[in-house]
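Side project, low priority. Logging it here so it doesn't get lost.
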Amino acid sequence: MASPTLDSLDTSIIDILRGNGRATNQEIAERLSVTAATVSARLQKMEDARVMRVVAVTDFAAHGYNVIIALGVQVRGRNVRDVGRDLAKLPEILSVNVMNGDHDIELLVALRDFSEVQTFLFQHIAGIDGVAHIASGIAVDIVKFEFNVVPL
């Protein structure tokens, strides 16, 4: 199945929504010199084609999560995907990725405070059957965070 082609109007609509997800169809239309009906039709076309969807993205710090940790997990004695599914059940884990490389799984974890790190690593992560080794890195600053699936 071929991917739908986005024209400059489609990408302009997406760019506006990336900057302000609350922009109304009328506001977008005025900025792009088209009608609100055109914006509505284009948004519907892109959603139907699954090339775009509108989602809410929360700010880590606004919700009290001040520690972001990247974890590499090596798995032994159990299926990697099964371990990944168990890890994905932990609400602190934002992302679970099955990898090809030094780690079998990479995780992105958000915690409220540094005092939670040791307990989370040793009781929650290491307590999952199949987790053999954990390598961690703590983010000291977020230089770029975009929730864009594909750059346009």
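Brief comment: The CA atoms of residues 68 and 140 lie 8 Å apart.
Revisit when time allows.
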